[in-house]
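Acyl-CoA reductase
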Amino acid sequence: MHLDQRINAFVKLGDFLSQFSNEVIQKKDNIEHNELFFDGFKHQIKLAEEHNGWFTLENIKFAISGWVNALTEANLSKWLKPYNLQINQPKKVAIIMAGNIPLVGFHDFLSVLITGHKVLVKQSSNDQQLLPYLAKYLEYIEPEFKGKITFTNEKLENFDAVIATGSNNTARYFEYYFKGKPSIIRNNRNSVAVLTGTETETDFKNLSEDIFRYYGLGCRNVSKLFVPKNYNFDAFFNGMYHWHPIIDKAKYANNYDYNKAVYLMSEFDMLENGFLMIKEDQSYASPIATVFYEYYDDAEQLQQKLEADKNQIQCIVSKGFTKNEIAFGATQKPYLWDYADSVDSVEFLLAI
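Tokens:
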């Protein structure tokens, strides 16, 4: 199958998904195989909501919208332009996917297929409804994908390379178990924001998206703030306020109440506004409904610290602080070339 065929298939998948990315799900004309797939995918979205309480319709649509924006001919061509995509012998690549946010493993799935390899997918039990259905749509759009996409709940066997995402504990297991195979092994990472005291109201409103989207469950969610000494958090809390309806969601509210009780019983100092707590803590991974913060004295020393801790950090959100920073509000809108853990998965796939 030629690269143009593969790109065209994913562009058409983006067109199909565009029906499900807006506030109102609406069937469009001129979408290939829509009579076969539209109602079915609508049902899969409903099943995903019912199966996983964190996968609200709003968050599923947000995830889909990101892929609609990414899967254009212009974006796919720009992403792939730097690579020589000629492979002599297609391999079977196993992907072990996380399940923390909807379609979180789609980039790996796309990368394997777009480079001409076969994919063997082991999904998280938390996110099993959406991707297999989209894979079936791909096979209808481009029949040459048939036989190149396999999903399994069993032990992974007969594969040539692996991309695996999990916790720090499972990553150690993966590294041991897959030591004889070419691999990308990802573990826990978190994102941070560096505040200077010069942020605007708009900056904080944008930052709230980085904190609350997907209930903070993604590795691109900001879970830690670095703030100057004697920082006043009033403007920060004002910028967060429009997310206050999040406390009406039972799973989030339960976590908020539990973590607040733990902090109060432990007599930890923390600030809260009824739906978000902030606590001074040196850790990067904060519990749901909590953001940690840490004071800094010197910007250069903080840059050195973040560089030393880069294997724990996915994104740095700031404004004019570091060269690889991400703008406020942009962490959950990565480009195709924004690779997880800064590991180029396409380069890896072309080298196996």
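The chain has a mean pLDDT of 96.
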